[in-house]
């Protein structure tokens, strides 16, 4: 059975939501606490510090869908449209919102300018704006700009920088989109996943050459170490590079969508985001039909994700009429 583009886009978006819903139960727990209370967590049961209902999702999925809607509204130049979607979501008073994103969206309401909002956030947070809040939402960029990698990198970085000023956040998001693009085009029986990392690094260096050399070196070093990193050395934190490393590690060291996600969320820490970031990769690579039905069917935003992935597919395949 071949995995077509439609199946991969749907798989990617559902992958993000499933990783989020599955991982939210374990957010902020250590691996020891998870083992004691859950053994190995494999079902979408809700709960966690947000006291979710089973199948409820958090900011990771909500922001990913916001990015998708913004891109669909203005594929040529989506930043303002994505921003509108972020604000719409922000004004719905979400229970789960990261510090960097909250600060940047608040500053936007003050300045009405994303560059200023992002820069002020960076100042106020003491230069610490390389959180994973930009990484968790960036997958749709891969699908929308798949045919134009230069534009894909540009949009990926632009959307990251709306909230996350640190160049490492931009580099991490661009790398993730480049990696997802490699997976989007991968043969279905590809076994050597490491070569996708190498190809994605090459693309990132090509299209993000204007980022500080030190930033690209930090990214490259972290990525090249992943395959040989012992599991005990993974840090499941909210720092974008840590999240990327954890998510890719779980994708590399497993053979199915299900195994990858179970591995990812059971690392604990920022479990919903690591789950979402890993789920985006695994869903794109293995495709929608590889996702266990019990996970898809319990998701609250199932119909919405189905609809948006269909619309994104039409955009990619050129069947959307330009308005
Ligand atoms: Mg979350």
Features:
323 residues, 0% strand, mainly alpha, 16 helices, globular, ADP-ribosylglycohydrolase fold
Structure description:
By secondary structure, the chain is mainly alpha-helical. The chain has a single domain (5-308), classed as ADP-ribosylglycohydrolase fold. Helices cover 62% and strands 0% of the residues. It is built from 16 helices and no strands. The chain has helices spanning 5-23, 31-38, 59-73, 79-90, 99-111, 114-124, 139-144, 149-161, 167-184, 194-207, 213-225, 240-252, 257-265, 271-286, 293-298, 302-316. The site of magnesium ion has 6 residues, from helix 3 and helix 14.
Low-confidence stretches: none
As for the number of domains, it is: 1
CATH structural fold name: ADP-ribosylglycohydrolase fold
Count up the helices.
Answer: 16
The CATH level-2 architecture is identified as Orthogonal Bundle
Q: What is the element string, with H for helices and E for strands?
A: HHHHHHHHHHHHHHHH
Helix content: 55-70%
What's this model, at a glance?
62% of the residues lie in helices and 0% in strands. It has 323 residues and is mainly alpha-helical. It has a single domain (5-308), classed as ADP-ribosylglycohydrolase fold, CATH 1.10.4080.
Topology of helices and strands:
Layout: H1 5-23, H2 31-38, H3 59-73, H4 79-90, H5 99-111, H6 114-124, H7 139-144, H8 149-161, H9 167-184, H10 194-207, H11 213-225, H12 240-252, H13 257-265, H14 271-286, H15 293-298, H16 302-316
